[in-house]
Amino acid sequence: MSxxxxxxxxxxxxTTSITSLTVKTRVYDGQKPGTSGLRKAVKVFxxxxxxxxxxxxxxxxxxxxxxxxxxxxxxxxxxxGKEAVTKIIRIAAANGVRKLIVGQNGILSTPAVSxxxxxYKTHGGIxxxxxxxxxxxxxxxxxxxxxxxxxxxPDNVTNKIYEITKTLQSYKIIPEFAIDIxxxxxxxxxxxxxxxxxxVIDSVxxxxxxxxxxxxxxxxxxxxxxxxxxxxxxxLINAMNGVTGPYVKRIFSSELGVDDSSxxxxxxLEDFGGLHPDxxxxxxxxxxxAIKEGPYDFGAAFDxxxxxxxxxxxxxxxxxxxxxxxxxxxxxxxxxxxxxxxVKGYARSMPTAAAVDRVAAKNEMKFFEVPxxxxxxxxxxxxxxxxxxxxxxxxxxxxxxREKDGIWACLAWLNVIxxxxxxxxxxxxxxxxxxxxxxxxxxxxxxxxxxCADKMMQSIETLIQKxxxxxxxxxxEGKMYVxxxxxxxxxTDPVDxxxxxxxxxxxxxxxxxxxxxxxxxxxxxxxxxRMYIDSYENDPATFVKDAQLVxxxxxxxxxxxxxxxxxxxxxxxxxxx
Length: 577
What we know:
Shape: globular
Number of helices: 18
Strand order of the largest sheet: 1-9-10-5-4-6-7-3
């Protein structure tokens, strides 16, 4: 691998020579990374040796790449983040890492980490985030590893990390070594006779430069500022006190001239100001109400680490993530980046509504359905087969990096709106006239008893595996669905042949509608049951109806079939999206 370019920073040379220490530790059970790293309560990470063990396991999993490598480090600014950065610096130095590129104040959005890994050709990055989970001393923390393509570590890497944690007997660390990560500068020392550098960089610069090269900032600025023949397009952006605040300030205020009064919650806070930084209709209620009651034409919110987004039109017209993906797919060529690169293909996660499938079919584009987890998109992108992808969990992105990207999705929408000259609602209505509408909702039942959740999933799987289940007619209040196929979804990667099994229970109907059940891997405790309902309609008379009313028959069929209330004791979901 070529040596990374220098991101820059004031040099602070030191003749300090430090000798590393080997610290005996104990094994902690359960350090198995999920779909996006290891997420636990802060108090778990604060246990003696716990964080150190997991960081050491990440470094050992690099194998021959470890000696002399360069890694990126940063996170979403949540509680315990700065302490974790300090530990990573000391452990990396002791393990022969040549250089760390660290975001100022320990801040780097997840998309920015991917940007920097790819731009400077580093060997990967350590991201300190629990994404959309709450933050603070009594909330959650997380650590994940991104590989040299900028994307989340694939299963073979996370499995290797986990195996190492199960037998780890010691970790290497250097003694007290203080670097002020709030100050942009380059610090070099010697550790065990080898050079080690920490380069603290501006957290925002590289990402903003990339966005400028992707989108037509001039036309977006004209849209937002207004012109002789078009009034200003009013927007409201909510960073939810997460990591995107500095990025929102630089892009929307400095670059696009949006008044600061339209940018809210843009200061990253360790506890997100008490907010639950998950950009959906439940947790971003303040944004929904402000758009509904105010003069705004467009609203957007981002999660704690900046990879998720929610898009709203005038009067809080809600764009489902599935529809957002499909609309962007249908209009990608309005964005300069895709005018240069061409459009290679579309993909979605398995639970995501099948709206983008119809765009792919009509435009004769490659299409892929993958398991939940952004790492599955990365292989397809690296192989040059995929340009745009998304998940129903408010994640959208393209091959500009190897992570979903909230601000990118917002800018993509503004670029499309500027190009079409239509409102968000009119863009959706015109889209549905061409492709039909996939009504979609997700019911989350959080912190369920794990044993009860497992029993429910086993019961559903036993039912749908019966041969007589195929062709079964399921109905509620006169609406009938005929089962076409049912399985526990499995995936074979078309690039490297790797397999992922037991990814969620699917019931597919003859009209294209679907019911899906999954246990989430992104929580820090208990089990989260996720029920996904995707009902396809091609009758224009249904397009403007309330989604929950249209979905009611299929929701009730799913609840009855799963016996969810009986298994969990829950009468209602924690969150509906």
